[in-house]
């Protein structure tokens, strides 16, 4: 059937199915929900961000690095009214977006834990491939929760379980937090003492999907795979129960119905029976039902959690905040918005790229990070002003390489036929020190950013940053050394590092430094270093 005819048929089916979906695109409805929450604070709404501010923000959020000087100049000179939408679409279609999402989901899923049974290179390649093809989120999660690690082709997906050694309580807690937005750690031993929604039975309902699973041949084997027994139920007892009553539950999602389990005939409990050095395979697997239960449309927490997490990635704060404490005593700041985001995400087949695009196109996302003069800073949960977000370790590494011109120099060295994949292969190995230092002890749910002394010293004096400043053909210090006009030096410096034009005072500071120096090369090096080590560079704003 021709594409046009299929489109007409789809429209006809939708008309028969019920009322049409809202005419406004989601980004417009986002702004209506946010505006409805202004209340008496409407006068505190920040104006639209300037083009330079928006450009840097979009680059960091969508591809994980900053723009080149040429990209900045081109965007600032563009007078088209739809240039921001075009920029968003260009960035989302670029290889950099898949890389940025792979970074983000690596941290979300594995939380910078040690690489144990699945090598990092294989895991990162798996994530990159998934986001390059824009794999639906529910499909991705089903792969993560169903892979057993036996097939080398799908083993990277099993990292979520394998690198946690399939420890029952570790995986139960992390499934609740990461996929459902429910930190039920306290429910391991009793109903949560302060959160009525978090019940011990819900905790063990999740664990019941996995209590029969174990690592084969053993947890210490680097090539261990997930095996499963055909029998075994969970039992639990509240430490506060004076009667010491032993309880049990079938596999189920929190607040949901037990998952139906077919019973195997006696003597036919296994497809592959347990034996020495043989991986058992039950006729009916509880673990295989976990992926379907988590991603089921009946499990509303699944879509609700991920749209809240993606909102936090883009906006600097979750609608439910912290993102892993979704419960009745911690209501969302904009409940109708959260419900609409979740419903539309499901309707769009769990398309993360579509969701990110709609958030990026909203006026709420494009607001300035500067409060209006003379007004107090508004409450962050109203989204009246863009929230400043500290760069992740990966963002900082790639932004530093771009700001110092290291990326430009490597691109030039590859020549006209060089690809983004080849460039990335040259840049990625430099991320190790940044991840090792800037990725440590960072709580993405915290309300305030606090850098450790070691992290501050790393940024200001560490060799990982300093070595990027050494002049080489095409990098920033090389370019600046060839410019004689002090104002032009300032323009190139601030455009490259901070993605903006310098102020009059900043131009004067640069001119004064160059006028009084006896070592121009060293002074230029110090100017670049000072901006890269600045608080302005450290944040996405």
Verbal overview:
By secondary structure, the protein is mainly α. Among the domains are: 166-171 and 184-296, no CATH class; 389-540, no CATH class. Helix content is 50%, strand content 4%. The chain contains 26 helices and eight strands. The chain has helices at residues 3-17, 26-36, 51-63, 69-77, 83-92, 95-110, 120-132, 137-146, 159-162, 168-180, 200-207, 286-295, 300-315, 335-347, 352-361, 393-403, 406-414, 420-427, 431-438, 453-461, 463-466, 476-481, 486-498, 504-516, 520-532, 535-538, and strands at residues 213-216, 225-228, 234-236, 247-249, 270-272, 281-282, 389-390, 539-540. The strands form four sheets. It has a two-stranded antiparallel sheet. Strands 3-4 form a two-stranded antiparallel sheet. It has a two-stranded antiparallel ribbon with strand order 5-6. Strand 5 and strand 6 (281-282) form a beta hairpin. Helix 17 (406-414) crosses helix 18. The longest helix is centred in the N-terminal third of the chain and has 16 residues, at 95-110. It is globular, with a radius of gyration of 26 Å. 38% of the residues are buried.
